[in-house]
Amino acid sequence: MVSKLNYDDLLSHIGTFGGYQLRNFILLCVPIILCAFHKLSSVFILAKIDHRCQLNSNDTEFLLSNNQDVLYTILTASFPYDEKKGFSKCQYYLDNYFNRGVENTTHTAVACDEYVWDYEKFQSSAIKTFKLICDRDHFKATSDSVFMIGVFIGSFAFGHLSDKYGRRKVFVLSLIFQLIFGLLTALATNFYTFTIFRMIVGATTSGVFLVAYCLSLEMVGKESRMVAGVVFMMFFSSGYILMGFLAFIITDWRWYQIAITMPGFIFLTYWWFIPESTRWLLANNKKQKAVKQIKKIALSNNVELPKEMLDKLIETETENNTDENESKPSVFDLFKLPHLRTKAFLIFFNWFVVSGAYYGLSWSSGDLIGNPRFNHIISGFVELPGYVLLLLTLNRFGRKKVLAGNLTFAGIVLLLSLAVPQDITWLVITLTMLGKMSITASYGTIYLFSVEQFPTVIRNVALGCCSMSARVGSTISPYLLYLANTWQPLPILIFGLTAFIGGFFSLFLPETYNKDLPDTLADAEINDLKMIEVPIGEELKELNKNDNKNPTSDA
After folding, report:
1. DSSP state, 272?
2. Nearest to residue 220, comparing CAs of 10, 493, 453?
3. Residues whose CB is less than 8 angstroms from the CB of residue 515 and which lie 6 or more positions away in sequence, other chains included
4. pLDDT in tens, 357-376
5. Cα–Cα distance between 158 and 204 in angstroms, integer?
6. Please, are residues 513 and 398 in contact by the beta-carbon 8 Å criterion?
7. What are the C-alpha distances in Å from 326 to residues 278, 329, 381, 549?
8. Where are the alpha helices (DSSP H) in 56-166?
9. If you average pLDDT over each of 203-207, 211-215, 423-427, which comes out highest?
10. Which of 97, 150, 424, 445 gives the lowest tally of CB atoms within 10 Å of its CB?
11. Transmembrane segments in this chain: where (predicted)?
């Protein structure tokens, strides 16, 4: 007779992905569409609108002419010229084409007083509202970076809170703050309040996304984790695509921000629908609530739960939670054991690489030739084949090979896009989109891979650290894109090289396919040692013994 019974064993009997899990899984996935809206909204609310200096009070139309000779004459007579940057958008001559003959004018270049805007691609943008152009053009990169700093803070804060107070409470709290500050962003009267409100929204996206992801994978069995993880990420891509279509309909940036925020009112009802993670309840010695929830799962899945099986689970939990005074594991425990520490650093680096490249390629989609909204939609659609690829390969080749293969391929095609003559536009865009597809597949893999690497007692904190590492990459990414003003290939060169290096490092991570989720710190270390056939020492056995006394351990 089995002496101990863990939650994965119980799930194999009551249903690894039955009706109960499916219903709650879909409910958890839908708000992720809003996370995509907010994380990628700067493509439209901070869209670049072409501009030039207003030459006189009657000059109100952007210079567009089918007669190139006339247009060139006006430009050369009115604006300074630079061989690299072309005609100036921030300076003009006082003695310009329209002011000739006016007294007290000289052929001197001065900064713009007013601007004329080109509304061909975008009719409204916070760039125009807050004048983030010329000597303030770096403020766009700053706003995106500050947003990602918010995501960085939220990754750690909400991860810690959800491990301490429960997934459900933190998830709903994040939705409330996302709604409030999303609306305040649309009402901002200056760049600084706009950026601060966006930073808070960025923090809430971590609370919504990470906690929902953790909840989703903790409610299903190991056989279903791959499908659940990949489908979850596909909802983010769906939001990516939908916001492009929405941008065709709503052209004012403030109303666009309101439109992507308002659905949050619906999700406030989740307080009454989304259950707490049963794994978290068991790990935190809340046996009565856990038992009630387990019975509800069995009933919903039309499965009869033997009383002796439930008793065995509770007996195991009681054995593991005997000492209430034991301190709970913290983020620092990630670095105490050698193999856990090594794989933590490798995973953190991969998150840094994948996130930096993903957001860099996503934010730059509007800079490609053609309609920026259409390009954004295409950039979102290429993610879906990446996720389909994961569904076909993750359980066949394992997590490690898929992650390493996708990162390596992404690095190669991104670097190849730099070797292709830039006038062959279709090939450059094709290679870039292939790179984006592989980076997306890597993102889907690294989320699942990380959940399976870390033990239950610190899983959400570890995921928070992973996301923090990712935010370092995505925080730097806007400034890398800004460096394209100095040397255009530089951002893609960096994205390609780091992706290739990340693919190589991925080969040193242990495989987790079809393995039980580790529950304690010792479980995670022992599993790694078994994979590389290293004898388990007495110190680790003693740690496992002490770990099992920990009140946060999930048997």
Report:
1. G
2. 10
3. 222, 452, 527
4. 988 888 877 666 667 888 88
5. 8
6. yes
7. 22, 9, 49, 7
8. 68-78, 126-129, 139-165
9. 203-207
10. 424
11. 25-47, 170-189, 195-215, 227-249, 255-274, 344-361, 373-395, 402-420, 426-449, 461-484, 490-509
